[in-house]
Amino acid sequence: MKPTRNNRGVAHENGANEIAHGQLKRSIADALLLRGSKDIDGLGDYRRWLAEIVGRISARRRQVI
């Protein structure tokens, strides 16, 4: 596999990755707002909470495909 780079000035080349990343960030921000607090008891709880968010996003994608 040969690594490649985006061409300077061609912003659309990395769009698919950026869209997914932006969606995840928005989903996490929304979940924090709904939760009402950014305080999480520990790393394990945080990982479970993130896994739940990612699972919901993945489930929606599976329904579309």
How would you describe what is shown here?
With 65 residues, the protein is mainly α. The protein has two helices and no strands. It has a domain of 26 residues. Helix 1 crosses helix 2. The protein starts with 14 loop residues before the first helix and ends with a helix.
Key phrases:
single chain; elongated; mainly alpha; 65 residues; 2 helices; 66% helix
Largest sheet properties: none
Taken from the alpha-carbon principal axes, the silhouette is elongated
Query: How many strand segments?
Result: 0
Query: Which range does the strand content fall in?
Result: under 5%
SSE succession:
HH
How many angstroms does the end-to-end distance come to? 28 Å
Backbone CA Rg: 16 Å
- Low-confidence segments, given as residue ranges, are none
The average pLDDT score comes to 83
Based on secondary structure, the structural category is mainly alpha
Give the helix proportion (percent range).
55-70%
Count of DSSP H/I helices: 2
Can you describe this structure in just a few lines?
By secondary structure, the chain is mainly alpha-helical.
Present the secondary structure layout.
Elements: H1 15-35, H2 43-64
Helix pairs in contact: 1-2
